[in-house]
Amino acid sequence: MEPIEELAGALRERLIERARSGEASGEGVTEQVKALVEREAMSLPEPERAALCERVLLLATGLGPLEPLLGDPAVDEVMVNGPAAVYVERHGRLQPTEATFESDADLMHAVERILAPLGRRVDEASPLCDARLPDGSRVNVVIPPLSLTGPCLTIRRFRRQGFSLRDLVANGTLAPGAADLLALAVAARASILVSGGTGSGKTTTLNALSGAIPGEERIVTIEDAAELRLRQRHVVRLEARPANLEGRGEVTIRQLVRNALRMRPDRIVVGEVRGGEALDLLQALNTGHDGSLSTVHANSPTDALRRVETLALMAGVGLPHDAVREQVASAVDLVVHQARRPDGSRAVQSVTEVVRVAGGVGTRELLVNGAVRRPREGRLAERLDQVGAAPDSGASPCTGASPGSEEAVAR
Q1: For 238-318, where are the alpha helices, taking DSSP H only?
Q2: What is the tally of helices (H) and strands (E) in the chain?
Q3: How far apart are CA 302 and CA 5, in angstroms?
Q4: Nearest residue to 295 (alpha-carbon basis) of 218, 387, 407, 199
Q5: Distance (Å, rounded) from C-alpha 340 to C-alpha 343?
Q6: Rounded CA gap, 240 and 235, in Å?
Q7: How far apart are CA 154 and CA 139, in angstroms?
Q8: pLDDT tens digits for 273-315?
């Protein structure tokens, strides 16, 4: 450790001791730090004293070694696996960093500085915590005794400007023809499920798809931790709330889905279905609230449909499996499956139409070798026809615009 870092750490400890003992004056933290540096490091040149003040302030009020990482716009996620192991995700790839904390206690100070303004805390009685920072970033904390490697902190950065379908085409995530089809399907009020693994970009794609919803519609978004940023004017954003330390006050995604039905929504956008709310969403889609969007963790489009069935059965209302399967077949029109490539980039691997078959739910692949096959019959084909799709124009098979154009992709 550099001498300036050691000195900054020592001055920070002095500041904390003074605060605990009641010796601190009524001045602000900045003034206290300046006075402390002037008294303890007066022999240093003025530029070095100014740099030392900034470093002590960073250690006392900021997040210490994490500040430079969180200030890097290329960092999408910060993962702290104990005080000596800090990783980041840049451009879809995990990378180790040289950032470290001096001890578990030092890391816990950073965790407390994150959670205290949010009214949250972690301790042995409640060693897990999910929270959202004011800028929208998501925070997860796990501390001992659950974590055997020391306090673990994960911060998923919030992207203020979400990607549009046109952006997904430009960066190679989505084929132009698929973007045309999906934009038209959203406008035609098809219900779309985005599936994929953790970190595959499901929420990014969901946000891009929402851009094709007509601006005059009333949209209600429901999320565990608010990440979506819709550009439409008439948007109501709802966020679930965990229980407090006494185990009270929890508001679940399922409760919010039920409540959303009383808010006169034109569209319901659920950030992710992961429990019994799947049944409420299916019932909403089957009772006039079509055109809704959501995501689900799954390995393939067929797995996504089976997972929605399983989650709906977890609602505990005693519905037969066949009845739930029928609801899935009636509710979902398209499944968009996304995956992370070995180089860290994301790609939409499948656009699958959901069809009803004798056994319940069937699928029909619409994206083959990068080319899109427009459905010629069935419920989805009828929806696309209703919004004026030109089936055999010389341009895009879905919108009549050239593939990847602004009219086709970002309508």
Answers
A1: 253-260, 277-285, 301-313
A2: 14, 16
A3: 54
A4: 199
A5: 8
A6: 17
A7: 6
A8: 999 999 999 999 998 889 999 999 999 999 999 999 999 999 8
